[in-house]
Request: fold
Amino acid sequence: MKSIVSVHDVMPHTMANIQDILEKMPVNSIKNVYLLVVPGLNWLPDQLLQLRQWQNQGYKLAGHGWTHKITRKISVYHHLHSFFISRDVAEHLSLTSEEVYKLVSDNYQWFIDHDFKAPELYVPPAWAMGKLSHQQLNELPFRFFEVSSGIYDSQKGALKILPLTGYEADRNWRTPILKFWNHLNVWMARKGRSLRISIHPYDLTYPLERDIYSHISRSDVFVDCDVATNS
Reply:
């Protein structure tokens, strides 16, 4: 089974949790791990240094929103999405297309301004891209955009549908739902498509912790977005 691993919500107050995840992750999964960074927060110099060290070690930094917190909820869809899935993190959903475009552009520019390697991947919080059209995505500097259904390659103008697992079972009712969802998506990955293994900062403290290690250990190859969207 091929997998693409991402660690979400890399923020100043989650750095210790991210370090713990990277240390406990099986060593053969080190290549092509994406660290999803939230730039619009109070980053200290030593935290930026740690990000740079991770990038130098081979981890891939990726964009992930701006503050990872909504400023408003307007639509009925956003209210429902917030209740069932995203709570207050899907910051794209009640923004205009122009606001989302600026947010994503500012995200990319943050990496450049802080002397990181240019990121190739952008993942909106809760995989909710909002009102951006494909044409607008193609104009942004990121090549890849990950949404709930898969990964969009702006160079090709094509979305690759890919299975996805998640482990953020922070409420009792989420555990059986995620367990079933992950089982279904791992089964789908056996048909040749890369499995997206998404890990959040506190997942090692939740009931599905063992499933993370199980899915990683069952993976034969760990790929990046380029390989995942071409296979």
User: Anything to note?
Assistant: The chain has one domain: 2-230. The CA atoms of residues 68 and 89 lie 5 Å apart.
